[in-house]
Specification:
Length: about 425
Amino acid sequence: MTIGKTPRIVILGAGLGGSIAAFEIREAVGDKAEIIVVNKGHRYQFVPSNPWVAVGWRKREAIEVDLRPVFQKKGIIFHPEGAARIDPANNSLQLTTGEALTYDYLVIATGPELAFDEIEGLGPHTGFTQSVCQVDHAVAAGTVFDQLAANPQPIVIGAVQGASCFGPAYEFAMIVDTELRKRKVRDRVPMTFVTSEPYIGHLGLDGVGDTKGLLESEMRNRHIKWITNAKISRVEAGKMFVEELTEDGAHKADHELPFGFSMMLPAFRGVEAVRGIEGLTNPRGFILIDKHQRNPAFPNIYSLGVCVAIPPMGKTAVPVGVPKTGFMIESMVTAVAHNLKQELSGQAPTHEATWNAICLADFGDGGVAFFAQPQIPPRNINWAASGKWVHLAKEAFEGYFIGKVKAGKSEMFFEKMALNMMGAHKLKGE
């Protein structure tokens, strides 16, 4: 840091983690630092609502926020053109315009790159399956889903090998079931759930509470068949080729699944701007961090969210990643904000995120909720429950979170109060 110069904090990414981080860091450091956000595009998307968009329950406009006026109000400089490459050795990043932007501290919150290309025929762009990972994908999926409802055919939904985000796959399968019943065509649509997980409800977390029993029961009640330990070989127009493995990784069966509509969550990897930088990322391009969310090789670089490297829970027959849930990400945000405040005051960072998980999985007419403290076992709290209240809670949370973004706030006072009552703290030692 140059003496006499206002330190500059650059935040790369403005999704769930990056946008909230910008607000919380601004609140934590005040006028002691210049804050700049770099992101591809100027619109925030509330990704958890994408499954609703794909069945027509939400319009994209309802789940998007124009970040430009929000950041301007908070005194945050915004570059919506995105970054091409970071240069950590020189404390700079190159924007897609070619402009170089220097920083004193960098917070990487890019989210992932979607690795559709790793499986032949996968994905909405050059393949035959749909996605709900981005709102554009969800809108496109909605068009194909309407065609399926008008001409009923089999459906395949799930998550491929290497995926780390399983909750939305379960949500979407149940939501599709609910919507097809509303349209009175469910009886003409066989459904199969295909997942790399070793069992239903594993979620990349070795389960939370009785998620195995709860989700298996939901699947049976909704007449959804499933294949676990599944490895997708390739996808063709209207057909998916799946190899099913045993628990010890031996070949068990081959499946050729016909479909008129398929939504498969892909594996994730780090974005091109950071991938392959020695000391910064692991082989998949995820950011290496210590317990304070700092990169060990470049300690002025922090990271949070889905782009953070977390080792798999354990050995599985098919590669299964670890999800980064919303509350877990928010705990990372708080740790980063507090640690940057300490650094600007000349202190060593001491704060650690709890990595607790609170999740509401909506099924349209019900759902499953779980609380894991911490997210990664062994846990102090390991709880799951189901009921119609989950759908209502998810709707309420959607409105609350989008409202936070529009207001430029990371946390409302009553949110902190409610979380404290639950014992769901964001920082260790609170």
